[in-house]
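Morning, I've got a small favour to ask if you have a moment. You're getting the sequence in one-letter code plus the fold written as tokens. Thanks so much in advance, here it is:

===
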Amino acid sequence: MVLARSDIRRLLEATPPIVEGLLNAEEQVQPNGVDLTLKEIASFSSAGSLGYGNEARTLSDSSPLALDSLEGIHLPMGCYLVTYNEIVHLPKNVMCLALPRSSLLRCGVSVHTALWDAGYSGRSQSLLVVYNPNGFRLYRNARIVQLVFLRLEREVTQGYQGMFQGEGT
């Protein structure tokens, strides 16, 4: 079941809140989700690798880009790592997905995300891809994705335990 605004508001009042650090709850809480906002953006500066086991995993290095609140940053076509302002705290009976805001899509930009498992807590990162050959201007605190929360039929016995637990906090 997808959580509605009333369910989300209730979970925002929990300890810890399902999403911590909202810049403006009235604007960010939507009928079926919560908008996450841009804290930082970085370009990739090295290759990465991934195999079946974690021993072959190497995350790509990234270099932060200067992000001016007033002028924003012009991004040419390419892939970028975005970090959100908000910290997500999922209970063991809720998972979530993120989708790009439709305004991004209408500009030739998308955000690719992974699944947020039940029990995850952290300041997440995602991949922003500028497909538009003319580029795209992005500003600090822009609302770029909407989290959609799904209530599980039952609580998981062990929540997320991966290497990204607690990231960015």
Summary: The mean pLDDT is 96. The longest helix spans residues 5-12. The first strand starts at residue 19 and ends at 20. The helical segments are 5-12, 25-28, 102-105.
